[in-house]
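Q: I have two molecules that I believe assemble together. Could you output structure tokens for the complex as a whole instead of separate predictions?
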Amino acid sequence: MTITPDSIIYWQWGGFALNATIVFTWLVMALLTLGSWLITRRLSEGPELSRWQNLLEVLVVGIRDQIAQVSHQQPGPYLPFVGTLFLFIAVANLLNVIPGYMAPTGSLSTTTALAICVFVAVPVFGIASKGPGAYLQHYIKPTPLMLPFNVIGEVSRTIALAVRLYGNIMSGTVIVAILLSLTPYFFPVVMQLLGLLTGMIQAYIFAILAMVYIASATSVHEHGEPDEPEHKTPSDQ
Amino acid sequence: MEINWVTVSAQVVNFLILVWLLRHFLYQPVIRAMDRREQKIRNRMDEADSREQEAINEKHSYQEKLDRFEKEREDLLEETRQEARQTRSQMLDQAREETALVRSHWMREVSEEKTAFIDGLRQQSLDVVETIARKALLDLADERLEERIVHTFIRQLHSLDQATRKALGHSSEPAIIASAFELEPSLRGTLTRALHELTGAELTVNYTTAPELICGIELTCEGQRISWNLSDYLEELTASIEKAFEPLETGKAGA
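A: Yes, here they are, computed for all two components at once.
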């Protein structure tokens, strides 16, 4: 029984091993891209919509609304990053119903990679939104004494992000595998369904948490407005 | 539970590629389509708003026009009514005048007719009375009546004044005594004598008959005429009858 798709290697070239994680990731990527391309190729701008376009619009609008709700900001700049996180994880988990498929999110390498992306995206968005000085200042707030704790918090939440997703998906796969050997036929199907639900929830949690982190890095600017020296006119207070 | 760092870096790259791909194939087109649709809807709404505004303006203008028409109509009607009233009063006046004219004309005709009728009536009654009187007197007339008449005439001659008597006396022409019927010679003698006494002159007296005198007698001499006959009484009767008709005439004329 394999716990992680990393250990299934299809092709080895020097130090690079083409394992199941990468292959299934490509599969998911191909599916998403092809699907999007097929649908958005013929987009209607009038009141008449195709069902697929309607689905995509509902998805995009839903993600935008969620981002706007969490960040209290315009969702535009964050949509591709956060939306892709959600869609990728959701689809990768959904495909679990296909026999022989192994979710790439069940590999700690994938979840780590996503977590690292979030870890990098937070300061990138923060600096893009407020400038490097203002962004770095929030590490020494409320006092410079808090600097190590802020840094540790930053790193630990990234690790938690990676491990949470990996643990949930991997456990689901493992439990199903174990149950299959113990009580075949019916019970694993229920667990599989539960796994699907878990997978969707995890996708939502991962994307929302990423958005929360990014929002906390970018929204300091808005909340810190009254302290800014350039805003002195009483009418702006 | 192990992390294959090569796989990690590959996955990072994969994820970034996916982000780019989805951005290119999913988010941008979908959002653009939605924005365009929204824009279209907004344009349509704007257009609808402007059209509605236009319609409202048009409606207002039509309302104004309608109001104006209504007012003009009202004015015209009022004018027409005024004219009608004027014409009516004019026509009424004219009718009244015409009626008054016709009425007065008619009244005149009526009064003329009445006058003619009364005249006729008077004439007829006179005639009747006269005829009856004549008939009665003719029936009654005889020698005794003649005698009474001659005596009455002689009494009348005696009541003549002095100037008349003298004028009769100086007459060169013969006096003519006319009577309704032939006088007897004795009566003639009495008459002649009475005349001679009265005038103090020998007057020639001629005797004639004149039936129209109605048992009367008449002396004509020197342009003088002295008579007694029933015609005088009848004249008086006529006068009194006319008098009796007078209030009738004046009363009808005043009505």
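A: One point stands out. The first strand of chain A starts at residue 9 and ends at 13.
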